[in-house]
Amino acid sequence: FFSPGFQVAPETKAVMKWLRSIPFVLSASLHGGELVVTYPYDYSRHPMEEKMFSPTPDEKVFKMLAKAYADAHPVISDRSELRCGGNFVKRGGIINGAEWYSFTGGMADFNYLHTNCFEVTVEVGCEKFPLEEELFTIWHENKGALLNYMEMVHRGIKGIVSDKFGNPIKNARISVRDIQHDVTTGN
After folding, report:
1. Which helix (H) or strand (E) holds 26?
2. Which keywords does this Swiss-Prot/TrEMBL entry list (predicted)?
3. Would you say 182 and 175 are in contact if contact means Cβ atoms under 8 Å apart?
4. Alpha carbons 104 and 3: distance in angstroms, whole number
5. What b/e sequence results for 16-50 when a residue is b if at least 16 CB atoms lie within 10 Å of its CB, and e otherwise?
6. Active site residue 134
């Protein structure tokens, strides 16, 4: 998953352990510097290729999740190409991460490959390091989109897998026809 010689920071290790211990199903990583929602894979299937579309087996689900956020964001959903993030207007404010730029070791890829958690990356504003007085506006631009995104937790696979006595089955594998990515039940 990580490049040879890559050092994983202690806080990243802690988040990875946390993600494996609780059956999260949805998350978002918030960044600054652009207005777009990206989804896995963030690392190109061909490491020497930059800006290469690299879909997961759950491409349709990830696009739906990213669109749920983008469509509810007042600026990302704005059709003006003359604003920050305007170069993503024709894409609906979303893009496959590796198609934008490829990088290794991202949490969205880790979550998809090693947990049941589907994660998108939300670039919440044009400034990489916004000033304090800009934070209130950024929060209000993203609040409704975050709530809309959180509601997506009710989509997809959910329920209890149990034996004939009604006891939950831990680590049961669930497969969906034509999607080469299984999920497992929690504890």
Report:
1. strand 26-31
2. Carboxypeptidase, Glycoprotein, Hydrolase, Metal-binding, Metalloprotease, Protease, Zinc
3. yes
4. 7
5. beebeeeebbbbbeeebebbbbbbbbbbbeeeeee
6. no
- Beta strand residue intervals within 92-172, DSSP E: 94-96, 118-125
Decide if 33 contacts 130 (C-beta within 8 A). Answer: no
CATH architecture type of domain 24-157? 3-Layer(aba) Sandwich (3.40)
Integer-rounded Cα radius of gyration of the chain: 18
Could you tell me the end-to-end alpha-carbon distance of the chain, in angstroms, rounded to an integer?
25
Q: What is the pLDDT at residue 4?
A: 60
Residue count of the chain: 187
Residue 26 has a pLDDT of 95
Catalytic residue among 123, 132, 141, 151: 123
- With vertex at residue 161, the alpha carbon angle to CA 109 and CA 177, rounded to the nearest 5 degrees, is 55
Domain boundaries, the chain: 24-157
Whole-angstrom Cα distance, residue 53 to residue 44? Answer: 7
